[in-house]
Amino acid sequence: MLGRFFKKPADDMDGRVPPGQTLTARFPVLTYGPVPRYALEDVTVRIFGLAEEQTFRWSDLQAMEQTTLTYDIHCVTHWSKLDTTWTGVSVPELMRHVQLKPGATHVMVHSVGGYTTNLSLDDFVRDLNLLAYRFGETPDTVAPLETEHGGPMRLVVPHLYFWKSAKWINGLEFISADAPGFWERNGYHMRGDPFKDERYGDGL
Ligand SMILES: Nc1nc2c(c(=O)[nH]1)N[C@H]1C(S)=C(S)[C@@H](COP(=O)(O)O)O[C@H]1N2
Ligand SMILES: [Mo]
């Protein structure tokens, strides 16, 4: 069953590997639908819903503080990948440039092609979350994020299953109640904490 690139965790790696997960040294691609191709210069992130409407372009994002972080990622399809390195704008840094309106409690993240995923503001506005445009298997090999992995820019939310890390991000819609995104409507958990094994929602 386990492919040659996967290995069972020797132990729980000091609690780093969530229940039911297997380590991989590869970086599997999981995309629903076609892969869009456009340049970093053409990235736009539209802010709408319960926030002052505005659109960030690459030049706006580039002018913000840039952050490089190394951490583990966990996919609901049972692979985890340790020590991935990402460079981008942290969500708290981005949010310093966003004016929320009263009542905003959640965000619907939108991607080119129509993919969506929902997050509470508590899960969204965290120091480790990045709008990332560079990735490295190691800190020494950081390079522009490959198209298949969400390049030119994706969200990375490492504390939740990787379906929350929307690739080809182009919009943040602030909303007043939780609502399901694409996979959440199709049976995945509304929050998706890997350490709580929150894979599927109540509907399944
Ligand atoms: N726009 C978009 N973002 C997406 C997806 C997608 O299909 N479209 N798949 C999600 C899922 S289910 C996972 S596991 C990760 C996979 O990211 P990867 O292909 O870089 O491994 O992206 C997430 N973000
Ligand atoms: Mo996934």
Count of distinct structural domains:
1
Whole-angstrom Rg: 16 Å
Strand content: 25-35%
Shape: globular
Provide the CATH architecture.
Alpha-Beta Complex
Protein name: Sulfite oxidase-like oxidoreductase
Organism: Deinococcus sonorensis
Question: Gist?
Answer:
The chain is mostly beta strands. 9% of the residues lie in helices and 32% in strands. A hairpin with a 4-residue loop joins strand 5 (67-74) and strand 6.
Mind explaining what this structure looks like?
Pfam families: Oxidored_molyb. It comes from Deinococcus sonorensis. This is Sulfite oxidase-like oxidoreductase. The protein is 9% helix and 32% strand. With 204 residues, the chain is mainly beta. The chain has a single domain (41-196), classed as Sulfite Oxidase, Chain A, domain 2. The strands form two sheets. Strands 1, 2, 5, 6, 9, 10 and 11 form a seven-stranded mixed β-sheet that branches. A hairpin with a 4-residue loop joins strand 7 and strand 8. The protein is globular. The chain starts with 5 loop residues before the first strand and ends in a 19-residue tail after the last helix. The model has no long low-confidence stretch (mean pLDDT 94).
